[in-house]
Recover the amino acids of this structure.
């Protein structure tokens, strides 16, 4: 097995990056060349991740991209590029280096995704695989989900590219393997490439006494924080400031007590005037803050009906995507993330309803596609629903016929259940000539159940 490992590393010109003697593969079964080199990469990445040598891991991932490209394995190329991007993103998050380091990788990743005709669902699967299997130094804030952060970074890059072009890319102009390979070999400033990995290790050994190859890089080493970043330093500063304020107030109080009463009254009058001016200024400032301006589209009941929801039991997704709905409705008023049956759920709310200050459109997304929509607080001109009218609603009646009879509802809840469309209309009657609440449940546009209270 050792001879096979040495031969395959020599074939792919990786002997400068990977020492055959350091490869520890547990399998003894014969493997194809590409399968063997991938197994070597995975073993080496795990080894150097355990040692926290992220520079060497970046070099391994770059080499893994090149090998997958040469073998025309697009899925493996995408996995390697996302792994490379994720490690770089976590290392340089929120620093000036992040854009310079990640933009070339994102550009290369977009070309590979385009060439492989990858869907958003497949891309989410690739990202999940990387997050679950690649151990990296997570320097992201605690509130940020690594999978969501990486997905947002890639999606933002794709959106920017789609906005910059007005037509689809001509398949005949797709990049050739030689062009992709040439792009993949571009070296970022400060990156360690496969050809210079051993040189870097040698230089560190000479420069740093006691340095062991594979140990944590100086980037990841924890250095003592300067004194002005210690909590006790700022606590001491606050105490000093408070003492100074107390002393100044005592001094001013003593000086004021020795002045004449008329001077006191003038000073108090001036102080009251200044306080009044400050109060008016603060009130004006608050009023300006509370008068938001928005240029969002005024939505209607027809806009709500235009939202397609997804049947999660169907193989082909049909729900409206969040991106297309945001382009149509404008920026949402509220966003909320949660989980449903083990899947990530995103709930978006729009309140820019035309002439409806209390109404809201609420759409829930799973895998970036709408699966449930709600309309609440919608005020309409309705015909009074009396007990006689309610009794006239027959099970199996058509939904459009009932809408034509009594008008639009105040609340709507639309989902798919077991392959059937389920819609609940709620009418809340308030006025001198009407009262009560009516709930009508439709399945596939036919009345299935009804309920009333207070008619």
């Amino acid at each position: 097995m050792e001879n096979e490992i040495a031969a395959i590393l020599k074939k792919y010109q990786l002997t400068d990056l990977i020492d055959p003697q350091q490869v520890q593969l547990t399998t003894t079964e014969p493997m194809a060349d590409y399968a063997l080199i991938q197994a070597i990469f995975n073993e080496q990445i795990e080894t150097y991740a355990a040692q926290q040598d992220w520079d060497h891991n970046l070099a391994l991932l770059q080499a893994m991209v090149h090998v997958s490209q040469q073998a025309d394995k697009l899925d493996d190329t995408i996995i390697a590029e996302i792994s490379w991007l994720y490690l770089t993103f976590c290392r340089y998050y929120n620093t000036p280096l992040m854009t310079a380091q990640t933009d070339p990788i994102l550009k290369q990743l977009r070309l590979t995704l385009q060439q492989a005709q990858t869907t958003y669902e497949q891309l989410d699967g690739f990202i999940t695989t990387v997050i679950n299997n690649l151990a990296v130094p997570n320097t992201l804030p605690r509130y940020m989900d690594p999978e969501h952060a990486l997905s947002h970074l890639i999606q933002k890059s794709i959106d920017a590219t789609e906005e910059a072009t007005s037509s689809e890319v001509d398949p005949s102009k797709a990049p050739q393997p030689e062009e992709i390979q040439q792009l993949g070999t571009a070296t970022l400033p400060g990156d360690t490439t496969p050809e210079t990995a051993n040189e870097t290790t040698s230089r560190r050994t000479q420069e740093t006494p006691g340095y062991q190859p594979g140990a944590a890089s100086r980037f990841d080493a924890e250095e003592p924080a300067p004194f002005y970043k210690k909590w006790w330093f700022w606590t001491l500063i606050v105490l000093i400031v408070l003492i100074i304020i107390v002393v100044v107030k005592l001094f001013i109080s003593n000086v004021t007590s020795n002045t004449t009463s008329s001077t006191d009254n003038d000073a108090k009058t001036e102080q009251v005037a200044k306080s009044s001016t400050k109060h008016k200024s603060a009130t004006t400032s608050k009023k300006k803050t509370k008068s938001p301006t928005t240029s969002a589209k005024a939505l209607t009941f027809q806009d709500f009906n235009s939202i397609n929801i997804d049947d999660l039991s169907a193989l082909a997704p049909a729900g409206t995507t969040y991106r297309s709905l945001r382009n149509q409705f404008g920026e949402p008023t509220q966003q909320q993330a949660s989980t449903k049956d083990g899947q990530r759920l995103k709930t978006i709310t729009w309140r820019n309803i035309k002439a409806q200050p209390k109404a809201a459109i609420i759409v829930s997304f799973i895998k970036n596609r709408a699966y449930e929509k709600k309309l609440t607080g919608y005020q309409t001109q309705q015909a009074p629903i009396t007990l006689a009218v309610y009794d006239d609603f027959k099970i199996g009646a058509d939904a459009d016929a009932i809408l034509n009879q009594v008008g639009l509802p105040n609340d709507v809840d639309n989902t798919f259940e077991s392959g059937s469309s389920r819609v609940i209309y709620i009418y809340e009657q308030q006025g001198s000539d009407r009262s009560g609440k009516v709930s009508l449940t439709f399945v596939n546009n036919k009345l299935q159940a009804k309920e009333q209270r207070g008619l």
